[in-house]
């Protein structure tokens, strides 16, 4: 499973729908919804909610399309860096000297990568997760122009043969001249590995999704199956269909299902195990705890994890001890198929140095936006305590606000000091919803949520004292808590004029008959294609396009955060003992006895639910303002609308929310 030959996947050449690589003439757009924008004093550069980039020469009254965008993850920040505009996404950024012609490049971030949780089981093990038509459309989108004389994956066909049902896969019915899309779909349906995972595997092994001039040998070794890094490939497994089918079957085999032996045990789920950095054993190992079977399977398939140099830049080649397969799988999967995941990146410029920070606190700086240096992360920032706001202090230092309400400031991005934060606390009811699962009892639900059984019974009008609840039933629990409101000390970058849909104060435009023409943007080698047109026409002054003035939105209030402590509950299964349960859950028998009021430590019952620990959950809320709807909150807070609706089941799309109501964001 080759991981060494794919150290720089061709992501910068991937063109999102609507963004061609050839220059296109500028197009005035009547009314784009601009959610981020910055100014250089003469021109505004902005981004829509979908990541499309625009420019305006009349302070945002009319917008002209740049015919370019960062649409994979959306634009989360636009700033002027005293020399160029910078638009940031998570995996990539774009720069422009004139705000019209943009150059795409990779940002040196990636702290969200967890080698023990590359992809969830729910995402990986999904049978037939995309239709043949959807797969074909995806392949066409990712590789619209195949070079003459070559067969690209979107056009590839192969006659397949039938395979019988086994303990790993269902029947595969062979057919004549099946397309690559059909083969991937049928393998997914037969073996229960998601189409998305198979497509990413093919891309990280042979780049077949995006290559416009692939060789036949790439199809012969499409998934890298039976192609170890330390030995030649086994030719009997050559062929696109053969490769895709055997790879999917192998991922099922790694889980040691019934009917197979327990052979794959050196990466046990839930237990720490050493993983090599490289085929060269001298490069060493690092301990990794596999969080799920899908991630364990990826490590059986490509048994290496990226070292620190490989993670400094997600598009870098690292050093002689770097391997990239699992890093690239994670990067491509999230870039293509995990668009709702919050990979926000913030930016600001101070004294000619531009700093970008991702939500997990990774920091990188640049003086010209062409080369970047990654620094150590923000102290205290983590996937469970993410960066909420980033910018500057009122005195001009770099500043960040974390989800737990703490704040930091720095002069150089290397040394960070605590920053004073004003807070206020207000008692407020918080409604928690729980969907009943098989095996749930009202008692267990009450223990897990810190409320009494009688409170749940009364609030939900349960009959028989709560003895009868059904799977799928939604129970509400109103808890009286203290909500802490944080007054953020973070000030947005001074060039920002629109942040998440809110217009900020703008300095008067200097008087001038004709603004100077900015220098054209150059494209350094290796930075990817630039979009837009160097010779785009400026709208005629005699034919202006006017818009109705937008309704001014109220300034965003600071986020409200709440930390809740919940019990972790374990259900006793056949063969369990308190000692075994304690070992699995990293606790002690004495604590289990104490927490669960167990009278006889030698006697536990099948199906008994035991408290085995606690977990803390930090939740963030938006306090609704006049005129707020779920869509407006999602847009202004840069959160997917699906996330807002799933976390607030009482809300409906388009609903006007009462001012003051707390809307959960995470």
Describe the structure.
It is a single chain. By secondary structure, the chain is α+β, with helices and mostly antiparallel strands. The chain has four domains: 25-112 and 343-378 and 488-553, no CATH class; 115-340, no CATH class; 422-487, Membrane-bound Lytic Murein Transglycosylase D, Chain A (Roll), CATH 3.10.350; 557-666, Membrane-bound Lytic Murein Transglycosylase D, Chain A (Roll). The protein is built from 15 helices and 29 strands. The strands form seven sheets. Strands 1-5-4-3-2-24-25 form a seven-stranded antiparallel beta sheet, with no helix packed on it. Strands 6-7-8-9-26 form a five-stranded antiparallel beta sheet, with no helix packed on it. The longest helix has 14 residues, at 240-253.
Integer-rounded radius of gyration: 27 Å
| Overall number of strands | 29
What percent of residues are in strands?
A: 15-25%
Structural class computed from helices and strand pairing: alpha+beta
Q: Point out poorly predicted stretches.
A: 1-29, 501-551
**Tally of individual helices:** 15
Strands of the biggest beta sheet: in what spatial order?
Answer: 1-5-4-3-2-24-25
Estimate the global geometry from the Cα principal axes. Answer: globular
Mean pLDDT: 81
Task: Kindly report the oligomeric state of this protein.
Answer: single chain
Q: Name the helicity range.
A: 10-25%
Task: Give keywords.
666 residues, alpha+beta, Membrane-bound Lytic Murein Transglycosylase D, Chain A, 4 domains, seven-stranded antiparallel beta sheet, 29 strands, globular, disordered N terminus
């Amino acid at each position: 499973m080759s991981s060494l030959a794919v150290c720089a996947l061709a992501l910068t050449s991937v063109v999102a729908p609507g963004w061609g690589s050839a220059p296109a003439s500028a197009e005035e757009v009547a009314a784009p919804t601009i959610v981020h924008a910055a100014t250089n004093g003469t021109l505004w550069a902005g981004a829509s909610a979908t990541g499309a980039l625009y420019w305006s020469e009349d302070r945002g009254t009319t917008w002209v399309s740049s015919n370019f965008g960062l649409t994979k993850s959306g634009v989360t920040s636009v700033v002027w860096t005293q020399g160029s505009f910078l638009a940031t996404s998570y995996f990539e950024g774009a720069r422009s000297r004139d705000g019209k012609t943009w150059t795409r490049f990779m940002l040196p971030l990636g702290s969200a990568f967890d080698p023990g949780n590359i992809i969830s089981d729910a995402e990986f093990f999904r049978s037939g997760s995309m239709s043949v038509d959807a797969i074909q459309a995806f392949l066409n989108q990712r590789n619209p122009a195949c070079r003459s004389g070559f067969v690209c994956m979107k056009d590839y066909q192969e006659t397949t043969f039938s395979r019988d049902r086994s303990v790993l896969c269902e029947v595969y019915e062979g057919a004549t001249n099946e397309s690559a899309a059909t083969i991937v779909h049928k393998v997914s349906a037969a073996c229960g590995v998601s189409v998305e995972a198979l497509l990413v595997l093919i891309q990280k092994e042979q780049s077949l999704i995006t290559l416009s001039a692939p060789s036949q040998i790439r199809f012969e070794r499409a998934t890298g199956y039976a192609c170890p890094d330390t030995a030649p490939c086994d030719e009997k497994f050559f062929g696109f269909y053969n490769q895709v089918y055997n790879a999917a079957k192998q991922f099922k085999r790694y889980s040691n299902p019934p009917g197979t032996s327990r052979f794959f045990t050196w990466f046990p789920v839930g237990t720490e195990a050493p993983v090599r950095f490289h085929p060269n054993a001298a490069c060493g190992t690092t301990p990794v705890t596999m969080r799920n079977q899908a991630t364990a399977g990826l490590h059986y398939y490509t048994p290496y994890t990226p070292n620190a140099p490989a993670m400094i830049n997600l598009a870098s080649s690292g050093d002689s001890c770097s391997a990239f397969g699992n890093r690239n799988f994670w990067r491509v999967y999230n870039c293509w198929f995990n668009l709702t995941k919050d990979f926000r990146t913030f930016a600001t410029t101070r004294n000619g140095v531009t700093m970008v920070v991702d939500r997990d606190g990774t920091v990188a700086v640049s003086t010209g936006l062409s080369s970047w240096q990654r620094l150590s992360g923000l102290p205290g920032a983590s996937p469970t305590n993410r960066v909420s706001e980033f910018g500057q202090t009122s005195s001009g230092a770099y500043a960040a606000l974390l989800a737990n309400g703490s704040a930091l400031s720095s002069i150089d991005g290397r040394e960070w000091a605590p920053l004073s934060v004003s807070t206020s606390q207000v008692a407020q009811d918080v409604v928690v919803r729980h969907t009943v699962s098989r095996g749930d009892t009202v008692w267990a639900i009450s223990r897990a949520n810190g409320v009494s059984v009688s409170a749940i019974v009364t609030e939900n009008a349960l009959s028989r004292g709560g003895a009868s609840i059904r799977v799928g039933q939604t129970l509400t629990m109103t808890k009286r808590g203290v909500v802490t409101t944080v007054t953020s000390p973070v000030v947005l970058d001074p060039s920002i004029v629109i942040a998440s849909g809110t217009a900020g104060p703008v300095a008067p435009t200097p008087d001038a008959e004709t603004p100077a023409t900015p220098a054209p943007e150059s494209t350094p080698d290796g930075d990817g294609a630039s979009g837009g047109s160097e010779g785009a026409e400026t709208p005629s002054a005699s034919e202006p396009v006017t818009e109705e003035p937008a309704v001014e939105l109220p300034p965003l209030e600071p986020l409200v955060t709440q930390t809740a402590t919940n019990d972790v509950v374990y259900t006793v299964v056949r063969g369990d003992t308190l000692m075994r349960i304690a070992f699995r859950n990293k606790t002690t028998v004495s604590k289990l006895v104490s927490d669960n009021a167990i009278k006889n430590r030698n006697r536990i019952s099948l199906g008994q639910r035991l408290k085995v620990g606690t977990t803390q959950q930090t939740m963030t809320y938006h306090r609704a303002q006049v005129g707020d709807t779920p869509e407006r909150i999602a847009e202004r807070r840069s959160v997917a609308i699906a996330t807002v609706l799933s976390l607030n089941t009482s809300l409906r799309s388009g609903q006007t929310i009462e001012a003051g109501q707390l809307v959960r964001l995470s």
